[in-house]
Write the structure tokens for this entry.
Amino acid sequence: MSDPTTDPSRRTIQRYTPNERTNHWVVAIVFVLTAISGLALFHPALYWLSVFLGGGTWTRILHPFLGLIMTLAFAVLAAAMWRFNKMEPRDWQWLRQGRDVVNNREDRLPEVGRFNAGQKLVFFVFVVCMLALLLSGIVIWREYFSLYFPVGVIRAAAVVHGLSAFILICAIVAHIYAGIWVKGSIGAMTRGTVTPGWAWKHHRAWFREKLHATHPRPRSD
Amino acid sequence: MALQSLDIVRRSATTTSSPNVRQAQTGTVAKLIDTTKCIGCKACQVACMEWNDLRDEIGTNIGAYQNPHDLTDQSWTLMRFAEYENPDKGNDLEWLIRKDGCMHCADPGCLKACPAPGAIVQYANGIVDFHEENCIGCGYCIAGCPFDIPRISKRDHKAYKCTLCSDRVAVGLEPACIKACPTGALVWGTKEDMQQHAAERVEDLKSRGFDNAGLYDPPGVGGTHVMYVLHHADQPQLYNDLPADPHISPAVSLWKGATKPLALAGIVLTALAGFFHYIRVGRNEVHESDEQAAARETERARHE
Ligand code: HEM
Ligand code: SF4
Ligand code: SF4
């Protein structure tokens, strides 16, 4: 039997447009560079990561600019995805059934729209952390901005920056694993499409929306 | 300042021991700055420029003796002048002059904050030295220092501060500023000797009516290897905001303390949680039955 998620003969549903996919991968690539350069300065055990950007000094120089590019690219992506990430009542039910979620018992869960509650939570963690990183990062950016802030604010910003970077990196690790775990998700972000079965299984409410958008229901009332 | 050295007790961003078989067998060193003897002639400032080959930009006169206005990458020491009207002495004017510069803390906040391995070291003799060839110019040391000492150069974007003439001290000479001081306000020796000398000075000052004279060797940073004799040791802030109780800020300890290894462990655990979820539960896959269900649903929608 052919793999239903990759069988080319099957009709597929578009999940992300080429622009959205480009946007996502710009964020992802720049995130990796930003995280590597930040982690190099975060703990001596990771200072060796500075080789990837050409040494400690280049790491110090490039990191804040990479961070700016990443936050900008993320802002565009987040604006496009915002309306799909509003929490709804069924999302809270979904979260309460966390055990069913992690054990792949999806049939017991409430129907899911374009994004499930886990994805929505991760989305908001991203938004908050990016904002915190941007603001605190500017304060600790010695070359251009630190001179405008008193030392107490700089120290607090360093703590906020490290903490929000930690939370963001953990959230990204979870985000990446979720992509591997739910088979077919990576294809959604590389080829842009998913199979109807994938949509039906993981995002049934969204699947129905898509169906009724292509086959409008005659008004019965 | 870089020197091959076998007496490094602490090294920034380094988790293992640095070479330190050489110990400070005759005790650690200290510079004693006796503000009560200082006449503000700035010979020490000039000696520092000369020995270290530093020349600051010619600044502007703002109607005070202090010049330059602040420490810079070219001015590692600076006389700070304060005019104090002493209310206990009928508002007599006192000219409080303090030679500012790195205090060479026993517990240096700059070193604690620095993320670049070996950019800051502490020698067994107590000197805290910046090795600029390892410095990446991030400025964390500025945030870590309780005395606002390090300065980043606009030319090379490295951090600079007083070396306590580590190059001279390493070959048995006294720092250049000490050599230049004409009044004996700057004294050099082992920390123990300097504490003793200071005690004699304090006694003398008390006998002359300076009841609050005392030694400034702040315990919050483990003591310092640059110490002051002050006429008003009870109010160090009179001397151009010399901190009364300097210590590494709790924010810096939080930023650079146990939270870092814990955070790394947290990231690794998150990744491991994913890995073991994969091993124990496995992937969430779409089956042919799901595709058929989706197809049925599509058919229904088409005929509705
Ligand atoms: C607009 C965004 C950002 C700006 C302006 C910024 C700026 C900075 C600056 C100025 C530093 C000090 C070192 C240096 O000068 O290079 C720094 C450190 C750091 N950054 Fe960022 N950054 C940003 C985004 C990020 C992001 C997205 C991450 C992680 C994913 C991150 C992680 C870190 C880490 C871990 C450190 C070391 C912090 C520490 O030592 O505690 N930064 N950042
Ligand atoms: S005074 Fe500042 S720069 Fe000097 S050793 Fe102490 S913390 Fe470091
Ligand atoms: S600027 Fe200061 S904290 Fe940063 S690497 Fe140089 S010495 Fe270390």
Observations:
- Chain A touches chain B through 62 residues (CB under 8 Å).
- Chain A has one domain: 16-214.
- Chain A has a mean pLDDT of 93.
- The radius of gyration of chain A is 21 Å.
